[in-house]
Amino acid sequence: MASNRNDIEKSQIRQTQLEPTHRRRGLGNPVPMGIMGFGGTTFLLSMFIVHTRSVQTDNLILGMAVFFGGLVQFMAGQWSVAYGDSYAAASLSAYGAFWMSYATLFIPDSGVIAAFGGQTEEFHQAFGIYLMLWFVITVMYILPMLKKNIAFVIMLTFLALTYLLLAIGSWNQKQPVNSAGGAFGIMTGLIAFYIVVGMLMDDEPTALFRLPMGVLSDK
């Protein structure tokens, strides 16, 4: 009798240990918040890049990039460590840092652009290299998702194309190329919004409907 009770207790302990970290700790999922910061900032900047409603100056993005795309997303990445999601921790923290670094480039008091003597040819070449690095980083983040989540693969693929086209546009100073990059950025933001809604719906027991996310594996 005692042996059976011990076996049951061991089985319960083993089952608890196999549960995801966030369930054992009673944590909420920080990933939707991080993706919203990422998608919202990407969408807004891309709207400026394609000159929506004749907007030619995109400095309005700086506050959004520092706080929403940067700080909020970076915090979500750090909280994902406690949530037990290594991929979210790595990707959200990285893209949060990207947005803060991007804003720093264009804040006048940072002195970055002034060091190049303004937005000169040399600056555009350097900025293109900067964007190309993030294209490579994004491709690296696509690989772990290929057999896991279709929605994330599509979003990151569009993001990679955004970086690639904007890098080429910076090197060649061709507005049509920049506009193409902005168009892909807008689609990236919209896909991010879809993912956020889908994840929030999945976490809400009383949701009216669910959105297909193309989840191939939850491991």
UniProtKB/TrEMBL annotation:
It is a multi-pass membrane protein. Keywords: Membrane, Transmembrane, Transmembrane helix. GO terms for molecular function: acetate transmembrane transporter activity. The chain crosses the membrane at residues 31-50, 62-81, 87-107, 127-144, 150-168, 180-201. It is found in: Membrane. Residues 1-29 are annotated as: Disordered. InterPro entries: AceTr, Gpr1/Fun34/SatP-like. GO terms for cellular component: plasma membrane. Residues 1-12 have a biased composition (Basic and acidic residues). Belongs to the acetate uptake transporter (AceTr) (TC 2.A.96) family. This is FUN34 transmembrane protein. The lineage of its organism: Eukaryota, Fungi, Dikarya, Basidiomycota, Agaricomycotina.
